[in-house]
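Hi R.,

Here are the chain sequences for the assembly we discussed:
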Amino acid sequence: MQNPPTYPLKAVENALVALKFLQERGEIRVADVADHLGVARSTAHRVLAMLVFHGFAIQDARRVYRPGPALRSFHEAGMAPPDLVTAAHPHLRELNREVGETVHLMVLQGNGVRFVDGVEGPQTLHVGSRIGMLLPAHATSGGKALLAELPDEELRALYPRGVSTGAAAIGDLAALRRELDGVRRRGYAVNSEESERGVRAVGVCVRDAAGRAVAAAAVAVPGVRWPKRRLAELAAPLLVSAARITTALTA
Amino acid sequence: MQNPPTYPLKAVENALVALKFLQERGEIRVADVADHLGVARSTAHRVLAMLVFHGFAIQDARRVYRPGPALRSFHEAGMAPPDLVTAAHPHLRELNREVGETVHLMVLQGNGVRFVDGVEGPQTLHVGSRIGMLLPAHATSGGKALLAELPDEELRALYPRGVSTGAAAIGDLAALRRELDGVRRRGYAVNSEESERGVRAVGVCVRDAAGRAVAAAAVAVPGVRWPKRRLAELAAPLLVSAARITTALTA
DNA sequence: CGGGGGATTCTGCATCCTGGAATCTTAACA
DNA sequence: TGTTAAGATTCCAGGATGCAGAATCCCCCG
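And here is the predicted structure of the full complex:
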């Protein structure tokens, strides 16, 4: 560490030592802090109250203190993860090699999904690249995976007039909700010719360090080669790749 | 934010506001802080000196202050997640219901795995609970998943005299390495009667916010009900559950 | 080298922060 | 339901800490 300050500030020292103690422990009580700092309970309480007020700590109903959003903000804003596409691309390529089909990366944009990256399957018959395209979220597997992560209010806000009915697409919001319940239960989403005749797909979420879905990865396949009942076979490799992308975003 | 503290500490406030300012800006000077806090330069300097001494800031040769290792330590160690078992248990239970088999959570301990939680399968014939048991890591699916995450030096250090040969277990370090290569490639580990006759299992890693493997989740099944070729069917639900545990640990 | 801008050191004094005690709150047990 | 113990929060007098302003030092550029 550094040389001791020429002019130490005892109150500041208490606060910073308490903050580090909170980091180490993850959850602390007033008495713990008092012992750790060697101060009166009332002093410890005042220090913690300052940490709470400035967002460095939160206190739950049982009066336990935990790290607060000011420290999370550092995480979110400061430890900026590698660029999404850059991080994901090697894993998309690997998945493409593994399953021999077209893979995509997409992000939610309004109630659509923007395809931001992809690798086409090597076989003569394969789903073409959709990079740059914006498709309805509810009619794509990756879009469904992302919609399944939204709170209901947000989902409703995306579809103020219900869900548009394209070819074989979901007819109303209640039906979409039921579909998304299934996505959440299984852990992955399936699209069987909803966005395009003869195309099926499986999609899963890619997450950031805080566990939030920031993108989706999907495998899109020709229906003729992948009957509906075989789509589940794509789930495990896709989930592995999504986890690897998440890890890359997190590192 | 919160209500103002009943007893604000002015010096602590200066320090915490300065710390947030440092987070936002990424690099600051004494004069910046003095302006931001509305204090004399000497006051600002004293506050920054305390931040430096406690590792929350560093100062370079040009006298610019930047975020210091104490804030990084928060990221690495400290997003102190909810307790591992507490976080994982609901998801283990759900997985148990979904696949109808015994599920476990385990952590690496030396070159063994400690079973720290589990839910037994509901069928008459099921793998019994191993909670509390320490088994050789290389002979369990979860153990293999965890070993596959280790750098080679660490793996070697765990097996200074090669790998012990139990029933059908891997005979030497080179063979273990090959096995772990397969684990990494597939994204999940398989155990076919290596730790116990008639028992097969699939295991995957559970990760923390930094993407590091902190535990493994596994499904253990009777061999009679799950021939070797069907083990892959357990991978997707297991991967989904592991991802959910990771999310719970990360939130 | 000189000068300007910024950082660091110093010190008197005022006000802030402390500890201890009183009071409040919560949880567990009979 | 009531009681009790443990922990948290509030209060206030007094002493110690932290402040500002000025002096001094440091760095960089012309």
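Chain A touches chain B through 66 residues (CB under 8 Å). Residues 7, 9-12, 29-31, 41-42, 45-46, 49, 63 of chain A lie near DNA strand D (CB under 10 Å from a C1').

Let me know if anything looks off.

Best,
T.
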